[in-house]
Amino acid sequence: MELYHMFLHIVLLVIIASLLFISIFRRLSRLESRQPSNDRVLEGYSEIGGTELAEKQAKHRPNPTAAPPTSDSDNMNTDSVTSMDVGSSEAETRELTRDEILHLKKLKMPEVRMALEFNKEEKKLNMYVKNVVKLPAFFFSPGTTCLISIIVIRNAARKWLGRRRSFDMSKIAPDNFTYLHTLAVPRNCSPVFNEFFSTDLTSSQYYSTMLKVQFRHKDRHDRETVIAEYDHWLDSHPIEKFTEFELPLFILNPDLGSIEFSLCYLPTAERISITIIRTIGLHVEGSSTNCIVKVALVIRERLRDRQKSKILQGSSTLLNQTMAFELPRKDISNAALIVSVYQISEVSMSKVEDDDGQPSTSQGTTQTRLRRIGRVALSASQNGEEQTHWNEAMGNPRKKITETHALKQL
Fold first, then answer.
1. pTM exceeding 0.85
2. Do 329 and 394 meet the contact criterion of CB atoms below 8 Å apart?
3. Widest pairwise Cα distance in the chain
4. How far apart are CA 409 and CA 375, in angstroms?
5. Neighbours of 359 (CB within 10 A)
6. Which Gene Ontology cellular-component terms appear in the entry (predicted)?
7. CA 340 to CA 407: how far, in whole Å?
8. Do both 116 and 200 map to the same domain?
9. At the N or C end, where does the chain have fewer CB atoms within 10 A?
10. Closest CA relative to residue 391, chosen from 380, 383, 404, 377
């Protein structure tokens, strides 16, 4: 009998343990099912404007290979890797995952705030551009303004490829895109535009239309430079009514060449000297390869002094020219040294302005014009190699600190 009772106790214990195990397993399953999915994570994140944020490659180059346009696609998988063919130029598009989108929000990336609406009845795409925020600091550059351009590209097809590549706008038929832009406003860290746009768009074109939003600089000679851009597919987010977006702008870093120079600070004389050693592989346009280097000292966003080098012949030239600037110790933390490289070009002008600003007409006049290739801004508030070079020079007085810097558009 004792063995029989012991056997019953063991059976009961096994049954109770099994029931407890099943109960715990069910509770864990319920907890896992209640975890927020990727779709729920992105609820309330509509200001990003969907999940198709195109990752920009550092070098903005057209793909030499060409492919014929394919058919439009309707329902796209937002976690997938897709590509785009526009006209005869192949352009790959990789959609960012939801985790990557949430990570982008934490980064200090420039963002354009705008709203979109697609009116099916009127066959209109309405757009509103508000402003741009989180722009990097833009040191002394008189006459520079900025604007937002929107290129509405229709009949753009997607297909499975892989990583994204930019495409050549020159190969797109004029009937397949519309170019819109805001008025130019003064360049600051948060320029405001407040402009509305409207363009024709049919329901059949809705799923094959992409917006290329570009932030551009415009100099005093009306030359525009694309600083950052973002590609947005219209069907990535419902826009039956006006929907606000905060779209990240990917800053372009084209290969503009490099410049090598040294810094040396003399605390007793309160002077800083910079020696321009050489230029390397400058990106010049046209037949003229003559260049010049200008160095400006800016303190508290005000120009204190500016000097220029002799004319350089060729994209890679040895210079070894030294320039000196007065820099008091108290102003070191608020100072910035801007090294700019310009290409010298001659332009035939029939109307030239005198030194006093009054126009004077002359036939067959040739005017020298400078086109900025790129520049390097060194200060304590900069990031990356520029800040390291500046701090090392200030921390090691009377010693020449030499570095090679890549030219940037900003």
1. no
2. no
3. 126
4. 7
5. 8
6. exocytic vesicle; plasma membrane
7. 8
8. yes
9. N
10. 380
**Three-state DSSP class for residue 334:** helix
Interval 223-252 mean pLDDT: 90
Retrieve residue 248's tokens.
């990240």
Six-digit token pair at 221? 């000679």
| pLDDT number for residue 314 | 86
State the residue range of the domain holding 125: 103-251
Cα–Cα distances (Å) from 250 to 54, 67, 275, 404, in that order, read 9, 26, 33, 25
Closest by alpha carbon to 217, among 176, 249, 177, 246?
249
Asked if pLDDT for residue 347 goes beyond 80, the answer is no
Total domains in the chain come to: 2
- Tokens coding 346: 């001659």
Half-sphere exposure of 231 (CA within 13 A, CB side): 24
pLDDT band for position 103 (cuts 50, 70, 90): low
Q: Which residues, including other chains, have CB under 8 Å from residue 74's CB and lie 6 or more apart?
A: 207
Choose the final residue of a domain: 251, 278, 295: 251
Could you tell me which residues come within 8 angstroms of residue 279 by beta carbon, excluding any fewer than 6 positions away? 257, 258, 259, 260, 291, 293, 312, 315, 316, 317, 319, 341
